[in-house]
Design goal:
Elements lengths: L1 H30 L8 H17 L19 H4 L1 H14 L2 H26 L4 H12 L2 H9 L3 H7 L4 H9 L7 H14 L1 H21 L3 H18 L1 H13 L1 E2 L26 H17 L6 H16 L9 H4 L13 H21 L3 H34 L18 H9 L3 H7 L9 E2 L5 H5 L3 H10 L6 E4 L5 E7 L6 E7 L4 E5 L2 E3 L5 E2 L4 E5 L3 E9 L5 H38 L1
Helix pairs in contact: 1-5, 1-6, 1-18, 2-4, 4-5, 5-6, 5-7, 5-8, 6-17, 6-18, 7-8, 7-18, 9-11, 10-11, 10-12, 12-23, 13-23, 14-15, 14-17, 15-17, 17-18, 19-20
Length: 594
Amino acid sequence: MKKKILNKEYFVAIVILTIISLVIVSPQIYKKSIILGSDVMFHFNRFYEISKQIDSGNFNYFQSIYGFNSSGRIINAFYGWDFSFIMGLLLSVVKTWTKFQIISSFACSFIAGINMYSLCKYVKLSNKVSILGSILYMSSAAVAFYPISQAFNSWGAAFLPLLFIPAVKAINNPEHPINIVGLATTVSVLLSVHMMTLIIGLMAIVPFYLYSLIKTKAKLRWIGQMFLAMGLAVLLSANSIIGFLDPYLSNNILQPFHLQQMSGDIVKFLPVRNDLHNIGLVYTVIFIFAISMILLNWEKSYLEEKFFIVIGGLFLVLSSGLLPWDELPNSISVLKTFQFPHRFDIVSYVLLILGFSIIIERISIKQNTESKTVVHSLVVILCFMSVMNVNAFMNSQSWIWQGNDPAASGNNKANLRIENPNLIRKAFKSSDLTKGLNAIVKGTPDYLPIPSNSGNDSIYSNNPYEKYIEQFVDNPLKVKKTITNDSELKLEWNNTSNNEKEVLLPIVIYNHSTVKINGQEVNAKMVKKTDLGALIVRNKKGKNEAVVGYRPILNIKIMFALKLVGIALSIIYLFRKSWFDTDLIKKRKQTIHL
């Protein structure tokens, strides 16, 4: 009977969260619009690359052989190949940018809601409060800015609540504090989805595990199980780890641009709508209420509540102007890698909404039916305001698509290759996905190989965005690009002059690249390249040919084999644990019966 009730609760939650996700994306569905945010073309190229590889059967883990102008640059290996594959597969199925964007936006909202619901249920909240907490989270700026502007950190936010489930167990279960499979699996998923979210999330769960280690009596067992979790995470992420480290460690890789004044990207507490730079009225009320309730009732509060509020509050401070963000990175240079301070509030949204939900639950338990209804109704009002804020945002973005500047949702104006708004819409609506990719072309130099004696500052001081366009997009050399049977890039061009002059080819060369020029294999470390890694060769008279591939130090197939071993070990461990727990329950029942 209890199992049926639980199933009914989950069914109700799924239905409600599905409806909320549909409400969030409904303006885009009605208007059949495409929201062209600032980073949309970068991610569209990522997913087109995988989609085209799936359709053609030409698989290349490292090089971009279809997307990014078939430049051979490494993108998906840096940004998480596994999740890119899922998104590329979706694109292969739906075949249009409109359907892809609507479905992926719905999925981001729904997955965030389900994962937050799972966290709420894990801390034993009622179904009603768990659903309300999930709605608040999935409609927050942390999640909603993927549907609103295709900000990819929202996908990290969608999975982040799962990271706190094993963290909560660590402080609440001193006898068995380490959830080996739960921790390893969540770390592996987040590593593939959004690495920066994983790094911030790991920073947030460190206090949970430090407390757990201090409190446990079996410290050696704790350490052993933590190493097992770390080992399993490495197995599950083997391809992601090698895919990132191989090009990163063997080249001098250009880092994303570091802001000189980071205070422009803090979060503020203004009584306006909730967005990436404003907590907004609804969430300011929720956060301050949750923090003040726990601090004012510190002695009566449970341990996990204190953790949620203190850590959530600290990350809120980190993301705000309460810290000197223009001066602090000069003393702690590693902070520059985070780029935008507002990224830290992703932890606050998870933990402070969770803390708020626990407080609402506790208040409700102490009230009679009528008072409980009032409390829940007030939270429903907050949920309504938050969801409708996102719906209004989506409505505005969808209207932009229908206006005179369809690309105005992001900073795309300078990168338009088509000026006529009707032609822009037609390009992105075409069944030929490349027409949309060619309508807006951005010169994004992030993670390109640069000379070993160069630094980020020197490269960015010479406008690498413009150089990228010149070298890889608008390269004057007439080059024909094809894919070989080994899924490598083949470039062919003719030298009609009598001079064997040097030419710049629109292909990126890394130190582990394989390079053949006119049939002769050459060392990738010895070839001549531009500051952005474009190949420079001396061409002969007549027909010329260059074939470029990539050979990592460890075969990526072996890494996938290790991933499969990790998956198999996880399944075996969970099966054995389930069998052991079931057997233990049976023995206890027999003992009680006797």
